[in-house]
Amino acid sequence: MLILSSPSGAGKTTLTRMLLQRPELDLKLSISVTTRKRRTSEADGIHYHFIAEDEFRRLRESGDLLEHAEVHGNFYGTPRKWVEERLSQGRDVLFDIDYQGARQVREKAPRDVVTIFILPPSIRELRARLERRAEDDSETIEKRLAAARHEIGRWTDYDYVLINDDIQQTFDDLAAIVRAERQRRPRIAAGMGEFVTTLLAEPG
Ligand SMILES: Nc1ncnc2c1ncn2[C@@H]1O[C@H](COP(=O)(O)OP(=O)(O)OP(=O)(O)O)[C@@H](O)[C@H]1O
Ligand SMILES: Nc1nc2c(ncn2[C@@H]2O[C@H](COP(=O)(O)O)[C@@H](O)[C@H]2O)c(=O)[nH]1
């Protein structure tokens, strides 16, 4: 499980899209449920499953969410079954979730999670990105900027921290992390053990 978190507007969604466009990285995106209003650029079932609050409460109470949190006044959660099915098929799952959700997933599966925090190059640029995106009204943007300072303070919880200044550089660093994490010994031990046995059986 690969978790990306950041303050709103730092670039997670953009980076997620870039990761998914690379078939060789072979990542599956977990699509969250949310009670937030759909943005004009968003489609139900693609960016989120947009649901009502009573439906969210039902999912949370029936244990159908792997993690959940209230963020900027809306509720968000990760459907558990979809993720568990992908993991049992040996797939790597990508999450765009906040620090509260990252903590819950890490507590449940500490050895199977890699967490990455994306920082903006400055607060001024963060504001400019939220304004340029032009998807939220000014009250929402102010609310998200106010939350950003607290969210940024969680950077020390994460395995990796990237400053998203140049998008291509950040993407290259992210892809390098995915590739490196896949080569960690505990993750490749089974297949590699067999290879090493064959290697050692070769005559000199
Ligand atoms: N490195 C970058 N340089 C300039 N603009 C960027 C960069 N990365 C992302 N952006 C732009 O900033 C805006 C916010 O990015 P994005 O929507 O990916 O952020 P986010 O972290 O997913 O935000 P949210 O949590 O609100 O969904 C978008 O318009 C995006 O195109
Ligand atoms: N804990 C969770 N956080 C989530 C989930 N889905 C998204 N998010 C985070 O919410 C904020 C706001 O997202 P936005 O799309 O409204 O801009 C952002 O930090 C996301 O990462 C989730 O399922 N669980």
UniProtKB/TrEMBL annotation:
CDD domains recorded: GMPK
Classification via Pfam families: Guanylate_kin (PF00625)
Reaction(s) catalysed (UniProt annotation): GMP + ATP = GDP + ADP
MF-aspect GO terms: ATP binding; GMP kinase activity
Keywords in alphabetical order: ATP-binding, Cytoplasm, Kinase, Nucleotide-binding, Transferase
SUPFAM superfamilies: P-loop containing nucleoside triphosphate hydrolases (SSF52540)
Keyword Nucleotide-binding: yes
Superkingdom in the source lineage: Bacteria
Amino-acid positions noted as binding ATP in the UniProt annotation, renumbered to this chain: S6, P7, S8, G9, A10, G11, K12, T13
Stated family: Belongs to the guanylate kinase family.
Function: Essential for recycling GMP and indirectly, cGMP.
Family annotation (PANTHER family): GUANYLATE KINASE, GUANYLATE KINASE-RELATED
Protein's UniProt name: Guanylate kinase
Species whose genome carries this gene: Rhodoblastus sphagnicola
